[in-house]
Write a structure and sequence with these properties.
Layout (H helix, E strand, L loop, with lengths): L3 E6 L6 H7 L10 E4 L3 E5 L2 E3 L8 E9 L2 H7 L8 H12 L3 H4 L2 E9 L4 E6 L8 E4 L3 E5 L2 H5 L10 H8 L14 E3 L4 E5 L4 E5 L14 H15 L6 E4 L4 H11 L4 E7 L9 H8 L4 E7 L9 H7 L9 H13 L4 E3 L4 H5 L4 H8 L3 H15 L3 H5 L7 H17 L15 H6 L2 H4 L13 H10 L1 H16 L3 E3 L5 H9 L6 E2 L2 E2 L1 H6 L6 H4 L8 H10 L1 H9 L11 H14 L5 H20 L7 H4 L6
Helix pairs in contact: 7-21, 13-14, 13-19, 25-26, 26-27
Length: about 625
């Protein structure tokens, strides 16, 4: 549980008052050490470097865990023990503005070059560590959390319509926006160079720069890299591991248990219809050295926890299972675990290999397309025909027939079924003001008939929801005093996976084939070969139906003036679908309800208390 922060008055004004107001917001993350000047202060709770002199040339405040610290120390010709912040400072002294390119691991930092009066800020390749900032002509401020920034009077806590519209629509349109006006996020793999008169954000890493490679023993290479990734994240802490019974968490848990006995935390939903993870969890526990801990999640009440979640997340957010997930962090803290390994990201890093289907179709390999489509169908819980059918348009006869059919439907005016758009939940006036359709209108790589597996892999890794998920998880873990670490998001492992041909990601009907092959002999076969994933949406629907009256009150009222943001006709229609279909409600409607209720409660809490009247007080009120 770490943090960094900084304030820089670009106009030379003093920072003392602003820092005094903002610093308390960070105390929950531990006391910060500060380097202060008249118009500058930067601080960190654990990784802080002021060099060896009283007036150092370079000062670094970092929230960091470097994976290649030893290699950097050797490359820099240093001797002795150094903190990650000190290594970053030395790297800057050697390589200047190129130093972020040399770093591997999880990091967000502010560096002050006193000689040149320059600030250099950077966020790691995948955005594992949050980096929020405010910048105008007079002031720059940055921190791990937004509460530090919004406590500064010059920034304030006004809602940002663009960010709120994005959340109502289901997710941010980019890696920059927030729900706080003027507060931005530094995108993953980017750095910010700042002087009193200039500023520039540049990208220091692109997944597309990783080349393709053929490997003689790809599975063996993957396993070696994965082993190293897990081992690096076990060092120096009382560590536990999340174990859900899925492929990713099981891989992390078993690799960790092969290095040392591990305490595992598993969320159990035995009384929830359709939950099928217990046998998989039991199989993994039987294959390694575990001290298991089971947390009951059947009776969770997401609405009862909403106020606490809004406080933890500094406003409305998107994480539909948050009320369940926070139970894991709370139990970790109760049992003395301070670092929790998480299998998050296996889908994006390893890739299911969906793009291979298009490659096969484009090459006319129809039998292979049908075979590989089975694995993807199982992942999505769809029929094989539904998965494979769109790719048949690579056949010119099918493409021509479909074109004739579509034109006939248009001519005859036959309606076509369409799923509820997430953007439909946004109030029309708000959607128009923020140009929602334009901002969310980027076409996925899948829209191109020539897309490859590599295109989809890169798109998944760089999608805005990836870094946003890390921000949500960071706040959730920190609320319990726990740090989460993610072995799949290890730079050498990610580079390796990006370099693989599509046949290593989808083959023989097995999505993420490389991971499954690498875990042969380590992971029980029923887990290694499983294709399904438990869908938590019905559990959320059950929880909301247990609080039916409160849900109806939130949706049918105009709490906090929510109708200015949400199209309440769409929200009420989603409510009727929940009441009519129960746990069989479609995901789009269920999640639209959740976002609406969260925003309503948040807006309601932001409204000032009603002013007392003379009748209420029993005497005259001076105005």
């Amino acid at each position: 549980m770490t943090a960094f922060a900084g304030i820089f008055r670009r106009d030379g004004a003093p920072i003392a008052d602003a820092l005094a107001l903002a610093e308390p917001a960070l105390r929950a993350r531990g006391p910060l050490d500060w380097y202060r000047q008249f118009d500058l202060a930067i601080g960190a709770s654990s990784e802080f470097s002021v060099g060896g002199d009283r007036e150092p040339a370079v000062v670094v405040a970092a929230d960091a865990r470097l994976d290649n610290g030893a290699e950097l120390v050797a490359a820099l010709g240093l001797s002795g023990r150094f903190s990650d912040a000190e290594i970053i400072a030395a790297a800057y002294e050697r390589w200047g503005g190129q130093c972020p390119e040399r770093l591997e691991g999880d990091f967000a930092f502010i560096l002050h070059d006193r000689r040149r009066d320059i600030l250099l800020c950077a966020r790691d390749h995948f955005g594992v560590r949050p980096f929020y900032y405010f910048l105008d002509d007079r002031l720059f401020a940055a921190a791990t959390i937004t509460a530090f920034l919004t406590a500064i009077p010059a920034i304030g806590d006004a809602p940002d319509e663009f960010g709120i519209a994005d959340l109502i629509a289901g997710g941010y349109a980019d890696n920059i926006g927030t729900i706080h006006r003027g507060v931005q996020r530094l995108p993953p793999g980017h750095m910010l160079r700042l002087t009193r008169g200039t500023s520039r954000v540049t990208r220091f890493w692109k997944p597309a720069d990783v080349g393709m490679t053929d490997y003689r023993d790809a599975a063996g290479t993957f396993h070696a890299l994965f082993h190293d990734a897990v081992n690096r994240r076990l060092k120096g802490s009382t560590t536990g591991v999340m174990l859900s019974g899925g492929l990713d968490s099981s891989a992390v848990a078993l690799e960790a248990a092969g290095l040392r006995p591990m305490r595992s935390l598993s969320l159990m939903l035995d009384r929830t219809a359709g939950w099928n993870e217990r046998s998989h969890i039991a199989a993994v526990l039987g294959a390694g050295r575990f001290e298991p801990d089971f947390i009951d999640g059947d009776s969770h009440d997401p609405l009862a926890e909403m106020a606490a979640l809004l406080d933890e997340q500094e406003g409305p957010f998107i994480a539909y299972n948050a009320s369940l997930s926070r139970k894991l962090y709370a139990r970790a803290a109760e049992t003395g675990i301070d670092v929790l390994l998480d299998g998050h990201g296996g889908d994006e890093v390893v890739s299911h290999g969906l793009g291979r289907l298009n490659e096969l179709a484009a090459g006319g390999q129809w039998r292979s397309l049908w075979r590989e489509g089975a694995g993807i169908a199982a992942i999505y819980g769809a029929s094989r025909w539904r998965i494979v059918s769109p790719y048949l348009s690579h056949n010119p006869y099918v493409r021509s027939a479909r074109g004739h059919w579509n034109r006939a439907c248009t001519t005859l005016g036959w309606p076509r079924a369409a799923a509820l758009s997430s953007a439909a939940l946004v109030a029309p006036d708000l959607a128009a003001r923020v140009k929602l359709r334009d901002r969310h209108g980027a076409v996925s790589a899948r829209g191109s008939a020539r897309h490859s597996e590599r295109d989809l892999h890169i798109e998944a890794l760089t999608a805005p929801q990836q870094a946003y998920a890390f921000e949500v998880l960071d706040r959730m873990a920190a609320a319990s005093g726990v740090v989460s670490r993610y072995p799949f998001y290890d730079l050498p492992l990610v580079r390796f996976c990006l370099s693989l041909p599509s046949s290593e990601k989808l083959a023989d009907g097995l999505p993420r084939r490389i991971l499954r092959e690498a875990m042969k002999g380590v992971m029980p076969e029923p887990v290694r070969l499983r294709l399904d994933k438990y869908d938590f949406a019905p559990a959320l629907a059950d929880a909301l139906l247990r609080q039916r009256q409160q849900v109806c009150d939130l949706i049918r009222g105009d709490r906090g003036g929510i109708s200015a943001y949400v199209d309440m006709d769409v929200a009420k229609a989603a409510l009727e679908r929940l009441l009519d279909r129960g746990r069989s409600i479609d995901g789009g409607s269920l999640f639209a309800l959740w976002r609406t209720m969260m925003l309503a409660l948040w807006l309601d809490r932001r409204q000032p208390p009603a002013r007392a009247s003379a009748d209420d007080l029993g005497h005259d009120v001076a105005v």
